[in-house]
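Q: Make up one entry.
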Amino acid sequence: MKLSEYVRNMRIKKDFTLSALARKLEVSPMFISKIENDKTVPQSGETLEKMANLFGISYDELQMIAAKSKELLRIENAKNEDISSFRLSLARAMVESDISEKQLEEIEKIIKNTGNTKVSITVSS
């Protein structure tokens, strides 16, 4: 289970609002929202310890869940960077050649369907 799912499930089970949980953990509601939406993982051992105590789970177990989620988040961010770089390459290719926007969309769709984000674009004149 990812930390985002665990925190959301436990917050709901304990009948806490985002704000109530944030107050108990001494963080912002926005921070809790980012955790629940897979945008961040707490870096502070203190926050994880408070969370573990509040949810009735061992600190070590919660830390393992957080570490796994942190690695998944790192992989997702790297993938997004690859995709952004790919899109930039496609945009350059479009500007430097006669590729239409429709053709560009088709190329991007093909690449997404193969799951290969590490693609090099070469434009020939």
Residues 59-96 form the longest helix (38 residues). Helices lie at 3-13, 18-25, 29-36, 45-55, 59-96, 101-114.
